[in-house]
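JOB MANIFEST
job_type = single_chain_structure
chain_count = 1
residues = 331
[input]
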Amino acid sequence: MMGFDECINEDFSGVISVTQNGKNVYRKAFGYADLPNKVSNKIDTKFATASAGKVFVAIAILQLIEQRRLSFDSCIGDILNFDLKNIDPHITIRQLLNHTSGIPDYFDESVMEDYDELWIDYPNYKIRTSSDIIPLFIHKPMMYPTGDRFQYNNTGFVVLGLIVEAITGSSFDVYLNEHVFIPCGMLNTGYYELDRLPAQCANGYVYDDSRQEFYTNIYSVDVKGTGAGGAFTTVIDVEKFWASLMKGQLISKEMLKEMLTPQVKEECYGYGIWLDKKEEGMFDYHFEGCDPGISFYSSYDKQQDLLITLVSNFGCNVWKVFRDIKGLIKR
């Protein structure tokens, strides 16, 4: 186990898995899926992953582009059938994928700190389809002229989910299940409503400093995920996803190369996935998510064939644990 346990705080709650050269070298569950009833997390527990789901939506869009049902230069005004108000109808699919659209963000992470601020005037239990989130951004002005710069944007991927629905006639989560999850063998992955969770799902917990106790995040996040994120999955399913993606089983090798190529000069970001520069022309790849009571990080180092996935239902610092584990492997 290479001393991996030493990298993990005793209060960590979640699952950590490390695989190298196709073999699992460390996989362990910590803490509780149900805190009051002391139900332990297990390796096959399903965890919410917040924004990590953006990579699945990106795959769906790239599939539709390869099928020539869309193009990178398709404009949202030609696809969506609702009034865009002040939103530029000439925003393209490419700009949504690489966060350069300037579309008004319902959760602007550059100015908002707490995701649960969203639900003060608009209850989270209303968010059960992607279109339910439209009122949170539709009356806002553009953030900047489309294509002007990179700025991470949640609305952009909600809109990509809506585009999947407009093109396919299926809800985005049904499409993802049929064209991404099932082909990968990800049978424990899906978009679930918080008040209708299936078996073996971990509750998300947030700590209340004033009362010095944990409470569930059911009033802090969308009751069901959208194109911006919200999938539940297991570490095993995440490993299946990476394997299928890198083998070219979800999109062609040519499209995969484009997805994993920096699309914006000032940021190491491809399409729905972050690129971590190592040396000239070489990158590690990762996708991640963070919401109240949720933290997720999954990174693939192609040169070392090293995959590290960490997920927590207590919002633990998976980024620090990842860095410590990666540093231990490099010794």
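[summary]
The chain has a mean pLDDT of 94.
Residues 85 and 163 are 17 Å apart (CA to CA).
exit_status = 0
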